[in-house]
């Protein structure tokens, strides 16, 4: 193991040579010997030794002490003095440079070697201590906690920068002060200032003491902190002071408050969430009082999924936020509005007088929710279906209330857009029946019980076959063939229609085009297919239609996509989809026209081929006003360049009236009910042989 490198600074050449010989003999590496301090400094600047042996009296301007001062300042090198001087003044100057040894000439070689060995050892120990000191200092100065140490009297000996920042006191002003004078901790509950009783703290059996959260008071503010106090002990276990650690709890308090808020509020709308609503509702049920009345409203947005699917989830989310804001504006301060999830909201009305109060608030909600929304350049319309339950003493658990108010909401939804319904006992029975229908429908899909029937559409003026409308039927195993009125809404709400929609479109295209290929009608048979709200706004609608037409061979111009006024008015996206279908060649028909609220400007800007007059305006029992509406719809269609199809033609008199009105096409039981494929095939065969159906003097002429 090689020994340390040493530089000798000695003005007496013989003494310097003797030292070099002795040191080299002992294994040290003497890398330089100089008689002037200036020369030694120049050399060490290039090649730094492990230790310097320094004479005090030197040649040149610098003596040994001055040279040592510079070496200590710049390099921190260990110095061993060699000198013949031992007066107090010289010793005082030398002591200021913190030498590792002081040998008075003359000295023995063994004295020199011992001094060098001890000096090198002490220097290594000092270096380790300095490294540890730097490490501990960096650690204490970089932590986010305020750290303050005191002596046995409570006088501050150390404070890290965090402590200085928290206390708003410069670090140098903290040192030496009594800790209780600068650290003022206010108990949140008692509002008492914590007293730093050093005697009591020293006598604590626990070395570490955690205090409850306190308010740290300084000249500018009060901060929440978590204090802890530890004892500082000497090697003999005597207590030398304390360490106070203050953890700034502002960020943690904010985080805890954020967590509490998230646990109680809906992340999207900021309204109370399901848990808060349920807890509040259950509390009311547990403390029900006959003199204090409550009601629950269950609010579901009509056709929200259509908006979400067509305009995207961002627009859908913004719509939910705005709806929540409108609901909050309509209720009283002591009422509670919450979002259960999706497009479902609930309101707990607290302290109502009677049902009239509830209906008045509900009607205001319906009006406000139905007003248009302006979102990202879109003018969006929606409405609310609201179920109502007035709480009485027979309700014991929140799920009973939610069950009944949900049933009331579905009753409201079945009545049309923007309706309300108050729960009654019949609704519970209806809810059970609806659940049974849903279960049976899912089995029907698995067993292929849902099928298509085809109702002919007739050219009114000539009585010739124009095409068919594909209509869904349920071939029920025990009830026979069931029309869509009893199951269509449930099938659409549960997503069952979306599951089979494209399969039915493919099947109907294949069927009608097979008939056209067989019988060669001219012009070719057309197929009308109803598109549900969900299906029409699916992102892949155009691609799906294009694929099905290509694979079945049916030309696009012979497919008629039927949508209701409600779908067309749902959003700006509806007209865009209509244009995309039209550009593909598919005709666009507006079904049940006259039952919605489509504006003339919207009709004028949309690519519409046919308006279908709803059967309500065709039936004779509707009187002259209904016939006038039907005639007006025909005039509107003519002004838009559209053809007109009348639904619900049930007798020859009605057919004659429609011809006189200028209606182009008709369908209804007078011509034929919707038929299964094999019966429709027989009907087509008769038409192909020249059979026509036209009224003649209000009599059937076949």
TrEMBL record:
Residues 434-688 form the EAL domain. Residues 292-425 form the GGDEF domain. Coiled coil: none annotated. SUPFAM superfamilies: CheY-like, EAL domain-like, Nucleotide cyclase, PYP-like sensor domain (PAS domain). Keywords: Phosphoprotein. The modification 4-aspartylphosphate is found at residue 55. CDD domains: EAL, GGDEF, PAS, REC_DC-like. GO terms for biological process: phosphorelay signal transduction system; regulation of DNA-templated transcription. Residues 132-205 form the PAS domain. InterPro entries: Biofilm_reg_signaling (IPR052155), CheY-like_superfamily (IPR011006), EAL_dom (IPR001633), EAL_sf (IPR035919), GGDEF_dom (IPR000160), Nucleotide_cyclase (IPR029787), PAS (IPR000014), PAS-like_dom_sf (IPR035965). Residues 5-120 form the Response regulatory domain. This is Diguanylate cyclase.
């Amino acid at each position: 193991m090689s020994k340390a490198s040493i530089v000798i600074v000695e003005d007496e050449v013989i003494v310097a040579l003797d030292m070099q010989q002795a040191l080299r003999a002992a294994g040290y590496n003497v890398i330089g010997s100089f008689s002037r301090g200036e020369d030694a400094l120049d050399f060490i600047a290039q090649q730094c030794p492990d230790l310097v042996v320094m004479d005090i009296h030197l040649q040149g301007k610098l003596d040994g002490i001055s040279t040592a001062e510079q070496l200590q300042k710049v390099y921190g090198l260990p110095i061993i003095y060699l000198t013949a001087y031992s007066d107090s003044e010289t010793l005082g100057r030398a002591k200021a440079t913190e030498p590792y040894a002081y040998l008075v000439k003359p000295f023995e070689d063994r004295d020199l070697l011992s001094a060098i060995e001890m000096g090198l050892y002490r220097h290594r120990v000092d270096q380790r201590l300095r490294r540890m000191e730097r490490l501990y200092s960096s650690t204490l100065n970089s932590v986010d906690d305020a750290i303050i140490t005191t002596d046995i009297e409570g006088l501050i000996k150390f404070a890290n920068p965090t402590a200085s920042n928290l206390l708003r006191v410069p670090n140098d002003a903290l040192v030496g002060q009594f800790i209780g004078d600068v650290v003022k901790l206010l108990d949140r509950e008692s509002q008492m200032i914590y007293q730093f009783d050093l005697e009591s703290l020293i006598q604590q059996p626990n070395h570490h003491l955690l205090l409850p959260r306190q308010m740290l008071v300084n000249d500018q503010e009060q901060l929440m902190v978590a204090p802890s106090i530890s004892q500082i002990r000497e090697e003999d276990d005597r207590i030398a002071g304390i360490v106070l650690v203050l953890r700034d709890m502002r960020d943690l308090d904010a985080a805890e408050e954020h967590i509490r808020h998230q646990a109680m509020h809906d992340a999207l709308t900021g309204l109370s969430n399901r848990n808060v609503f349920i807890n509040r509702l259950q509390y009311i049920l547990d403390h029900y009082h006959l003199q204090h009345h409550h009601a629950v409203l269950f609010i579901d947005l009509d056709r929200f999924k259509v908006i979400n699917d067509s305009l995207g989830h961002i627009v859908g989310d913004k719509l939910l936020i705005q709806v929540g804001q409108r609901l909050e504006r309509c209720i009283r301060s002591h009422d509670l509005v919450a979002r259960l999830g999706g497009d479902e909201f609930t309101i707990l009305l607290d302290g109502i007088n009677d049902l009239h109060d509830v209906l008045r608030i509900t009607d205001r909600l319906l009006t406000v929710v139905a007003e248009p929304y302006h979102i990202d350049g879109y003018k969006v319309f929606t409405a609310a279906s609201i179920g109502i339950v007035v709480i009485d003493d027979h309700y014991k658990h929140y799920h009973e209330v939610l069950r009944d108010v949900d049933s009331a909401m579905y009753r409201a939804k079945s009545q049309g857009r923007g309706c309300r319904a108050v729960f009654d006992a019949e609704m519970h029975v209806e809810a059970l029946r609806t659940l049974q229908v849903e279960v049976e429908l899912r089995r029907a899909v698995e067993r292929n019980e849902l099928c298509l029937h085809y109702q002919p559409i007739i050219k009114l003026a000539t009585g010739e076959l124009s095409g068919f409308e594909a209509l869904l039927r349920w071939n029920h195993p025990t009830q026979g063939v069931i029309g869509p009125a009893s199951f269509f809404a449930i099938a659409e709400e549960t997503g069952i229609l979306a599951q089979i929609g494209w399969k039915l479109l493919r099947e109907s295209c294949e069927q009608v085009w097979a008939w056209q290929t067989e019988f060669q009608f001219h012009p070719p048979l057309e197929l009308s297919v109803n598109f549900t709200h969900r299906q029409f706004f699916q992102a892949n609608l155009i691609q799906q239609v294009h694929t099905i037409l290509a694979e079945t061979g049916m030309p696009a111009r012979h497919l008629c996509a039927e949508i209701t006024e409600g779908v067309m008015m749902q959003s700006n996206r509806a007209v865009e989809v209509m244009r995309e279908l039209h550009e593909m060649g598919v005709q666009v028909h507006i079904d049940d026209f006259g039952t919605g609220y489509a504006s003339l400007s919207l009709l004028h800007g949309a690519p519409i081929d046919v308006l279908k007059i709803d059967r309500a305006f065709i039936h004779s029992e509707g009187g002259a006003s209904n016939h006038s509406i039907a005639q007006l719809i025909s005039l509107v269609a003519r002004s838009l360049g559209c053809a007109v199809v009348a639904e619900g033609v049930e007798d020859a008199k009605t057919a004659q009236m429609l011809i006189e009105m200028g209606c182009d096409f008709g369908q209804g039981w007078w011509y034929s009910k919707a038929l299964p494929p094999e019966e429709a095939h027989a009907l087509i065969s008769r038409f192909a042989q020249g059979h026509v159906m036209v009224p003649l003097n209000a009599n059937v002429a076949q």
